[in-house]
Design a protein that fits this description.
This protein has about 700 residues and is mainly β. The chain has two helices and 36 strands. It has a domain at about 400-480: Sandwich (Immunoglobulin-like).
Length: about 700
C-alpha cells in the first residue's frame, strides 16, 4: 500500500511539473505578444474547440505449446483491459499561435497466466492493475517557418506473457521538437526522455537528434548528430547502452546538372556494458562519388570508399580482452552506354584493399556486360553476355564481422565466403528492440559442412527474441575468420542469357549459362582452385490472373555441386474492387551432390500452399480477410507447418470493432521424438465514442 501511495505521489509530481511548464510557456507567450493584443486579455484564455470521449475494451488470449515426445512447456495468457479516454483540442489566442492537445485515460486491466512449469503460489489467478494514462502536446506557431512542439505522455503498455507472466509497465516520456524550415535552410532539433518501469525491469532512455540541411540549386550540405543513452536494470543485474552517430553529406551539381560530386562521411561510436562484458565499437566510413552524364549517351561513375571499424570486447570477470580491427579502401569505375534504347553496354572496374587484425586481402575485378533487346514477329528477344576477370591476393586469416542472412526456425543459410574457420563462427539474431543476441552452437544452431564453406541450420531462437509466428523470418549477423593461408588467385568468367517474351508476354522461356575458372598464381589454397559451370533453364507462363513458373538449375563444382528444381503457380485477382484472392502453390527440390570435399549427398524438398482472401462491404463498413498456409520441408528432419488467420473490422455508428485469430501448428520428426509447436492467439478490440 505504501508503495502504491509512493507511485501515486511520483506521478502527481510529474503531472504538476508538466502543467507548470505549460503555464510557463503560456506566460512567456503573454510577454512576447504585441501591445494591441495585450489590450484584450480574454483572447489569451485557452479555448477548447473540440472534445471527445471514448470507451476502449481489449481482450486477448494466447496459448503456446512446445513439446518433444509429449513433454515440454505449455503456457497460456488471458488479458482484459477497459479504459475511458477523454480528449480535448484547443488553441490560445489564435490557431496559428498556440495549439494544444490533452488526453486523460483511466481504467483497469486483468491478466491470468498459466504454465505447467511454474510453482508460484498465485499461478492461474487473476492479477489486476489500474490504468492511468495521459498525453499533453503543445505546438507553438504551427504555420510559421519555425515552430516548437512540447509533449508529455504516460501510458501503460502490456507485453503478453509467453514463458512467464506478462510485463505490466508504466512508461513516462517527455520531449521537445524544434523545427525551422525556410529555403534554403532546414533545421531540426529533437530531445526525448523515456522512463519505462515494469514488475521486472526499469529502463531510462535519453535520445537527442539534430539535423541541418542547406540546399541551393547547384550545392547542398547536410549534417546530423544523434545520441542515445539507455540504462536498464533487471533485479540485481543491469546494462548500459550508448550510441553517438555523426554524419555529413554535401553535393555539388555542375554544367546544368550533368556532373554530380557527392561526399558522405559518417561515424558511429557505441558502448555496451553488462554485468559480465563490455563492448566498445567505433565505425567510420567515407564515400566520394562523381557521376558524369556525357555526350552520345555515355554515363561515367567514379567512386571511392574508406571504411574503418574497431571492436573491443572485455570480459569483466577475467578482464580478458579481444580487439578486432578492420580497415578497407575501395575504388570503382563504371562506364555505361545506350544505343537506340536497344543495346546497353557497361564496363565496371573495382579495387578493394582490406586489412584486419588477423590478415589482409586485396582484390581487383573487371566486368563487361552487354544487353540487347530486339522486337521479333511474335514478341521480344532479350539477350546479354558477360565477361569478367578478377584477382584475389590474401595474406593470413582476415575477419568478416557483419555478414547478414535471413531464415526461419528450421531454416538454413549458407555463408557467402569459402575457406572459413569453423571455430571462429559466431552467429547472432537481431532483435528490433534488444539488438544483437548471440546464439549458442548446438542449442540454437548447428554447423553443416557444405563443400568448402558451411551452412547454418537454425534450430531455435532465445525466448527474448522469439516470434510467435513459426514461419517468421529472422535476421542474423554472422562473424567469422578465414583459414590461415596466403595465396594469389585469378578468376575468369564468361556467361550469357537468352529470354523470349512471346505472344504479348504470355510465354516467356529463358536460358542462362555461366562458367568460371580459377587459377592459383602463388601460395597455397585449401582444396585447390575450383571450376564452376552453371546452367539455368526456365519457363514463365502468365496470363492474368494466372501464372506458372518452372525452372531447373545445374551447378557443377569441385566443392559443392547441386541440382535445383523449382515450380510455382499462382492466382491473383480482384473482383469488383471489393474482393481480392491471392493463392500460390510451390515446390522446390535441391540435391547437394557428392564431391571429394562433400562425401555425403543431401536433399532439401519444400512444398506448400498459401491462400489469402479479402472482402469489403462498403455499405456496412465491414472488412473481412483470411489467410491460410501449409508447408512441408524435408531435410535432416521433416517439418509440417499449418497456419490460419482471420481478421474482421466493422464500424457501425459510434462503435468500432476489430477481432482476429491466428492459429499455427508445427510438427518436426526429430531423433529424440516428435516435436510439436502449437500457437493460438485470439483478440477483440471495441471502441465506442461516448461524445
Amino acid at each position: 500500500m505504501a508503495g502504491c501511495k509512493l507511485e501515486m505521489g511520483k506521478n502527481q509530481k510529474y503531472v504538476m511539473r508538466i502543467i507548470a511548464r505549460l503555464i510557463f510557456i503560456i506566460a512567456l507567450s503573454f510577454l512576447m505578444a504585441p501591445a494591441v493584443a495585450l489590450g484584450d486579455m480574454r483572447r489569451f484564455i485557452p479555448r477548447i474547440y473540440s472534445t471527445e470521449g471514448e470507451l476502449e475494451v481489449n481482450m486477448s488470449h494466447e496459448e503456446r505449446e512446445n513439446l518433444i515426445a509429449e513433454t515440454g512447456l505449455k503456457t497460456s495468457d488471458t488479458f482484459f483491459s477497459e479504459k475511458i479516454v477523454l480528449t480535448a483540442n484547443g488553441f490560445v489566442y489564435h490557431p496559428r499561435f498556440i495549439l494544444f492537445l490533452g488526453k486523460l485515460g483511466g481504467g483497469s486491466s486483468q491478466e491470468k497466466f498459466k504454465s505447467n512449469s511454474s510453482a508460484e503460489a498465485d499461478e492461474g489467478s487473476w492479477n489486476n492493475m489500474f490504468i492511468k494514462e495521459y498525453e499533453f502536446r503543445t505546438l507553438i506557431l504551427p504555420e510559421h517557418p519555425y515552430n516548437l512542439e512540447l509533449f508529455a505522455r504516460r501510458y501503460n503498455p502490456f507485453i503478453i506473457g509467453r514463458a512467464a507472466p506478462g510485463l505490466k509497465a508504466v512508461s513516462l516520456s517527455e520531449g521537445a521538437l524544434f523545427t525551422y524550415k525556410k529555403r534554403p535552410v532546414t533545421f531540426k532539433l529533437n530531445y526525448t526522455f523515456t522512463n519505462t518501469e515494469s514488475n521486472k525491469s526499469t529502463t531510462d532512455t535519453k535520445h537527442l537528434n539534430t539535423y541541418a540541411n542547406y540546399f541551393k540549386e547547384n550545392f547542398s550540405l547536410a549534417g546530423g548528430f544523434s545520441r542515445s543513452d539507455s540504462r536498464n536494470s533487471t533485479g540485481w543485474t543491469g546494462s548500459k547502452f550508448k550510441f553517438d552517430s555523426y554524419s555529413i553529406e554535401n553535393q555539388i551539381r555542375l554544367f546544368q546538372r550533368k556532373v554530380y560530386l557527392t561526399s558522405i562521411a559518417s561515424q558511429v561510436v557505441s558502448r555496451q556494458k553488462t554485468i559480465a562484458i563490455s563492448i566498445t565499437g567505433n565505425r567510420f566510413s567515407w564515400t566520394e562519388q562523381l557521376n558524369m552524364y556525357l555526350p552520345w549517351n555515355f554515363n561515367t561513375l567514379l567512386t571511392y570508399n574508406y571504411f574503418k571499424t574497431t571492436e573491443k570486447t572485455r570480459d569483466l570477470g577475467t578482464y580478458a580482452e579481444r580487439i578486432l580491427t578492420s580497415k578497407s579502401n575501395g575504388a570503382g569505375l563504371s562506364i555505361t552506354h545506350t544505343l537506340y534504347n536497344s543495346l546497353n553496354t557497361a564496363y565496371n572496374f573495382n579495387y578493394n584493399s582490406s586489412s584486419t587484425s588477423t590478415g589482409d586481402s586485396m582484390s581487383t575485378m573487371h566486368f563487361l556486360n552487354s544487353a540487347y533487346t530486339k522486337k521479333i514477329p511474335w514478341g521480344t528477344l532479350m539477350a546479354s553476355i558477360q565477361l569478367s576477370n578478377s584477382i584475389l591476393d590474401r595474406r593470413g586469416a582476415p575477419t568478416v564481422t557483419d555478414e547478414n542472412a535471413n531464415a526461419p526456425i528450421f531454416g538454413e543459410f549458407t555463408l557467402r565466403q569459402s575457406d572459413v574457420d569453423a571455430a571462429s563462427i559466431r552467429v547472432s539474431v537481431i532483435d528490433p528492440v534488444l539488438g544483437p543476441i548471440e546464439l549458442t552452437k548446438d542449442i540454437h544452431y548447428s554447423l553443416i559442412p557444405f563443400g568448402n564453406t558451411f551452412t547454418i541450420f537454425v534450430k531455435d531462437i532465445p525466448a527474448a527474441a522469439k516470434n510467435p509466428d513459426p514461419l517468421f523470418v529472422y535476421e542474423f549477423r554472422v562473424a567469422y575468420s578465414f583459414t590461415v593461408g596466403s595465396f594469389e588467385l585469378e578468376k575468369s568468367g564468361f556467361g550469357y542469357t537468352i529470354k523470349l517474351a512471346l505472344f504479348d508476354s504470355l510465354v516467356n522461356p529463358y536460358y542462362g549459362y555461366s562458367h568460371e575458372t580459377q587459377k592459383l598464381l602463388s601460395g597455397t589454397l585449401p582444396g585447390g582452385p575450383d571450376e564452376v559451370t552453371s546452367q539455368t533453364v526456365g519457363l514463365l507462363i502468365q496470363k492474368r490472373p494466372y501464372s506458372l513458373l518452372m525452372e531447373y538449375q545445374d551447378y557443377e563444382s569441385r566443392f559443392n555441386p547441386s541440382k535445383r528444381y523449382r515450380a510455382e503457380t499462382s492466382y491473383r485477382q480482384n473482383f469488383a474492387l471489393t474482393t481480392n484472392l491471392d493463392a500460390r502453390v510451390y515446390y522446390k527440390h535441391v540435391e547437394n551432390l557428392e564431391s571429394p570435399f562433400n562425401p555425403n549427398s543431401t536433399t532439401v524438398t519444400s512444398t506448400g500452399i498459401d491462400l489469402k482472401i479479402g472482402k469489403r462491404f462498403p455499405r456496412k463498413n465491414l472488412t473481412v480477410s483470411a489467410v491460410g498456409s501449409y508447408s512441408n520441408i524435408k531435410h535432416n528432419f521433416e517439418t509440417n507447418t499449418y497456419s490460419f488467420g482471420t481478421t474482421v473490422s466493422w464500424s457501425i455508428a459510434k462503435l468500432d470493432l476489430s477481432l482476429g485469430a491466428n492459429v499455427s501448428h508445427t510438427e518436426t520428426a526429430l531423433d529424440t521424438g516428435k516435436q510439436e509447436i502449437m500457437n493460438q492467439f485470439y483478440y477483440l478490440t471495441m471502441k465506442r465514442k461516448l461524445f
